[in-house]
Design goal:
The structure is a single chain. By secondary structure, this protein is mostly helical. Helix content is 69%, strand content 0%. The radius of gyration is 25 Å and the shape is elongated.
């Protein structure tokens, strides 16, 4: 309950007092007070209102004790109010609480991408600084400084705590969605560490996307991003074996996929794709939906997936998307066609250090019987892989294609 209420409580306090540090401190003090009083007095009928009342009182007490701080805060608030136009009535009418203002403040383009994600996890997901540090695989002290600098940037740049106007929303919403997508990606495939997945991070991204969906029900790309997350995260239980090693799509036990999550995601895909031109997240959700609906790899509608990747490349050109399209072409037209497309991407700087690219090439080379070249590609992927489960799988695949030692028994297998 505290985690669910934290974002709403913090957003309300920021709107009231205009200071993120003050809001965080009194929100934490209110939760501490609840942990003391509720076990004795019982949980109130309206716990969120209790927390808000307690936090407001603590904030007023602080401001009374520090009149100079209060005066400075009031001046900044007046300045921000004058500079920031009120949101249009038709937009604000759709907002059930102030969390949307905090979404857009945390994802302001003046902040770096890492700062945006850190603030979202800290302020909206209610994670502690050490928990945020683990999400980004940095020491807690480093993350604490990063968060402090982000708050200072908000203060010094006079970034207003408000929802952008209707004319600004199209330019600002992609930043919010990108932060959520980046957080989910880190949870889906950890960039480093002992585990392939970080489900807690992925689930926090999904939770925040649900909040954003409730706050902006008319935004189709919000529906598309939430659908994409749900359809991909539904596979989590089948993506690793008993030892934590990755289980690739064609080997996954699809009975272990979360059907409830898939059904929820599938219901959102038409919302994301109708009512206007499709956006990148909606198209990716449609691709994920085709995977989710197929009973096995052979029955997957690969021609339709390739067609959707064509649309996605036109909307958001990217070497990674082109690589994924090449893999789909390989499933539709055979490994030689897919390999030709991957080789065309060899000059892309982004892909040189991207281990899935080299692993994909290795797989196709292995399927074509070009084992020496496959071994070289697996070695490149192994050097770049960030997690130990991925390295273990790559070592196994490399061993399967390397020339045997003189006199050794020859075994062949394929499993990437």
């Amino acid at each position: 309950m505290f985690r669910e209420e934290h974002g709403r409580l913090l957003a309300t306090l920021v709107r009231r007092f205009g200071d993120l540090d003050l809001a965080e401190e009194v929100a934490s003090e209110a939760i501490e007070a609840a942990l003391v009083h509720w076990p004795v007095q019982g949980v109130p009928a309206r716990p969120g209102a209790w927390l808000l009342t307690t936090a407001r009182r603590k904030a007023v007490d602080r401001l009374r004790r520090d009149q100079a701080y209060a005066a400075r805060l009031a001046a900044l608030q007046v300045e921000a109010d004058r500079a920031a136009p009120a949101p249009p009535a038709d937009l604000s009418a759709d907002l059930p609480d102030e969390r949307l203002q905090l979404f857009f403040t945390c994802a302001h383009p003046a902040l770096s991408g890492e700062a945006r994600g850190a603030l979202m996890l800290r302020c909206l997901a209610g994670l502690t600084t050490p928990e945020v540090a683990r999400a980004y695989l940095v020491p807690p002290a480093t993350m604490a400084q990063r968060i402090v600098r982000a708050k200072k940037k908000i203060r010094e740049a006079r970034i207003p705590f408000r929802v952008p106007g209707a004319d600004e929303l199209p330019g600002r919403l992609p930043g919010v969605l990108q932060v959520l997508y980046s957080l989910f990606t880190e949870g889906y495939a950890a960039s480093a560490g002992p585990d392939l997945q970080r489900p807690d991070v992925a689930e926090e991204a999904i939770r925040l996307a649900r909040v954003l969906r409730r706050l902006l029900p008319g935004e189709r790309e919000v529906a598309g991003l939430l659908a994409l997350m749900l359809l991909v995260h539904a596979r989590r239980a089948a993506r690793t074996g008993p030892d934590g090693e990755p289980v690739l799509l064609h080997d996954q036990d699809r009975s272990r996929w979360d059907r409830d999550m898939i059904e929820e995601g599938l219901a959102l895909v038409p919302v994301a794709l109708t009512g206007g031109p499709a956006g990148p997240y909606g198209v990716q959700a449609a691709i994920a939906a085709l995977h989710a609906e197929a009973p096995d790899l052979a029955a997957t509608d690969w021609p339709q997936i390739v067609a959707l990747y064509d649309v996605l490349l036109a909307l958001a050109p990217s070497p990674v998307i082109a690589q994924n399209r090449a893999a789909a072409v390989a499933m539709r037209d055979g490994p030689e066609a897919g390999l030709a497309l991957l080789d065309e991407l060899a000059g892309e700087d982004l892909l040189r250090g991207y281990h899935p690219y080299h692993a994909a090439r290795a797989d196709l080379l292995e399927r074509l019987g070009r084992f020496a070249e496959a071994a070289a590609a697996y070695r490149q992927a192994l050097e770049l892989a960030g997690t130990e489960p991925e390295r273990a799988l790559l070592r196994r695949r490399l061993a399967a294609v390397e020339p045997p030692a003189p006199g050794a028994e020859v075994h062949t297998s394929r499993g990437w």
